[in-house]
Amino acid sequence: MAKQIIPKKHPMPHQDPQVRAKNFDEVALGYTEELAVAEAERCLNCKKPLCKQGCPVGVDIPEFIALVKERKFDEAARVIKRTNALPAVCGRVCPQENQCEKFCVVGKKHEPVGIGRLERFVGDYIMNKEEEIEKSEPTGYKVAIVGSGPAGLACAADLARWGHSVTIFEALHTPGGVLMYGIPEFRLPKRIVQKEIENLKKMGVEIETNAIIGQIASLDELLNEEGYDAVFLGTGAGTPYFMNLPGENLNGVYSANEFLTRSNLMKAYRFPVSDTPIKVGKKVAVLGGGNVAMDAARTALRLGAEEVYIVYRRSRAELPARLEEIEHAEEEGVKFLFLTNPTRYIGNEEGWLTGLECIKMELGEPDASGRRKPIPIAGSEFVLPVDIAIVAIGQGPNPLLTKTTPDLETNKRGNIVADETGKTSKEGVYAGGDVVTGAATVIKAMGAGRVAARSIHEYLMAKGPKKN
Amino acid sequence: MYQIMSKKTLAPAIHEYEILAPKVAKKAKAGQFIILRVDENGERIPLTIADYNREAGTITIVFAEAGYSTKKLGKLNAGDAVQDFVGPLGVPSHVDKFGKVVMVAGGVGVAPVFPIAREMKAAGNHVVGIMGARSKNLIFWEERMKEVCHELLVTTDDGSYVRKGFVTDVLREYIEKEGKPDLVMAIGPLPMMRAVANLTKEYGIKTMVSLNSIMVDGTGMCGACRVTVGGETRFVCVDGPEFDGHLVDFEEQLMRSRKYKAEEQHALNRGGCGCGGGGKCHG
């Protein structure tokens, strides 16, 4: 078939960097119908779609893109939703370059098909339409899901679809987990998250907020007293790591979790309309090079910081963040200090941060991660004058639940031990997402949620019909 | 929404609410805290549990109006409801048979001291209560404290009630006269807890304090409540709120408690708080 392929993805309209660096509105504006159809035309509809194997939840990618090409957007949505409960979210935050688009055959010679952009288009298209909800007969089984982040939501969607009665317990006052407290409005509008959650509620999923399992009820109480037949734990990676450097408790040193939670969940960017304040300062250093670091840096700019630095100990090539986030941060004016490692925080007499002492690094031999190991250059210390530092070097699992469940096996880092089906050391208890793997991505957590949903379903069905 | 079942004004701008939250009440223990939000725009305000009624399903909180958020909270009445109410949070007080226990309460700190004193008494300790306030009109729960303490000593900074002096004056006199107790527990403003810890250090008496630091989520997620204890960083929300008073870096806590002072002022002027859940406005 001699088909002329347009070599580049159709660009998605964006807010101008100068303008958007000062507002919290969404940066990428999404495809129009025309752009979506034109981009869908680039898909070869391969017989053996390699893209699909790159997707942690196994979306039938060529099938939905073919329907976009025919302008059958509702049907395209139905195809995606068979395996992905949150297309509008995933279309925005998945690292497609490492997943579906990495395997795209078009991508071998040209830019791959904009699969993420098309998924987002379809997700947005269907969002405001009344959807038919396909549900099985009720099984009578009750499943508790702990945590309403991506893993829990994906798990809930499948279980509800298969007729189980599902209750999600969320510790915070709003469901959504990291989608609400972590990822900023300009990258993932909160109305979209809430809309996707509303759709789950329409499927019969119940959500109880302000409910901390481990505090209001133990796992044993859920299973033995409250009548749940199985539990899924998707409690995420919510505990921030610090570098344990001198001066870390000075005023002005935030964890990225706190900085982002204040801005995103508590809407501190609207202070004093919102009651929660946030300190921004004039000069801000963000420690780390992942997506969370980019989110924190770009949030600081929008809150009015004059200069924002990303301080990263390796070089640009090793930045773990999504390419698009790095480019967006650069366009908006975030400055990158590569091969630079913080050594201590400097403060004034009132306990406020005034500077970050750093040391220059060079790259040595590859380390265990396969990346070249950064080595400090002796005598290269310098002080970066900043009034706010945001530590974005990663998060570990929250210990609240595991602490009260001694018979739930955890590893050295405190992650829950689960096999490839999500099964934990405790009968009827499954786990998935960051609490098992350590901090990863939204879509990987959703994938793990779906795998566990399948295991829970099989576990319950093996028990035969529910006896009352 | 979580309904306010009763409201009492205990002293000028100090209120007691019983809030309906059966799941929290079922599990609450002395020494733990809750977080509430008054409305959709509200801050998450941490407050130590002053009492709980498992049958009625209520949690009692006591707070002083100081900043925007607590003023907003203070405007509510019985029958109104708060938007969010979550808990119980933090580690419960370590209650055991220690022998003689002195419970020191400064200002609004009498409220969280009360249930701990009750548990200490139930565990077979000889419980001595010391409660102090700036002035007579700020003294409350004296009768309730009498019920849970074998001895209760009251003092006022200005001498307008019972006697003049700080709680540390009373504590020192008590130790000099009666000898060293086995445990001292102090809850109140940071300078008061620091003063108690400094005093008991002289005598080598184990002393626990309950910190009320700035928090956001209260579940170990944000690290706003960092405190240095014995040279190590701990989170008040999940590792505390009670710590060995002789190991707490009070200077650092005092500096951290002032973090949002400018914003608080700004908010008060414009009608929004800004204290971030700490220090002044959350008593």
TrEMBL record, chain A:
InterPro entries: DPD_II (IPR028261), FAD/NAD-bd_sf (IPR036188), FAD/NAD-binding_dom (IPR023753), Helical_ferredxn (IPR009051), SudA-like (IPR006004). Residues 20-130 form the Dihydroprymidine dehydrogenase domain. One of its GO terms (molecular function) is iron-sulfur cluster binding. Residues 141-449 form the FAD/NAD(P)-binding domain. SUPFAM superfamilies: alpha-helical ferredoxin, Nucleotide-binding domain. It comes from the Bacteria. Transmembrane segments: none annotated. This is Sulfide dehydrogenase (Flavoprotein) subunit SudA. The lineage of its organism: Bacteria, Bacillati, Bacillota, Clostridia, Eubacteriales.
From TrEMBL, chain B:
[2Fe-2S] cluster binds at residues 222, 225, 237. The keyword Iron applies. Its cofactor is [2Fe-2S] cluster. Pfam families: DHODB_Fe-S_bind, NAD_binding_1. Keywords: 2Fe-2S, Iron, Iron-sulfur, Metal-binding. InterPro entries: Cyt_c3_hydrogenase_gsu, Dihydroorotate_DH_Fe-S-bd, FAD-bd_FR_type, FNR_nucleotide-bd, OxRdtase_FAD/NAD-bd, PyrK_electron_transfer, Riboflavin_synthase-like_b-brl. NCBIfam families: PRK06222.1. This is Sulfide dehydrogenase (Flavoprotein) subunit SudB. The lineage of its organism: Bacteria, Bacillati, Bacillota, Clostridia, Eubacteriales.
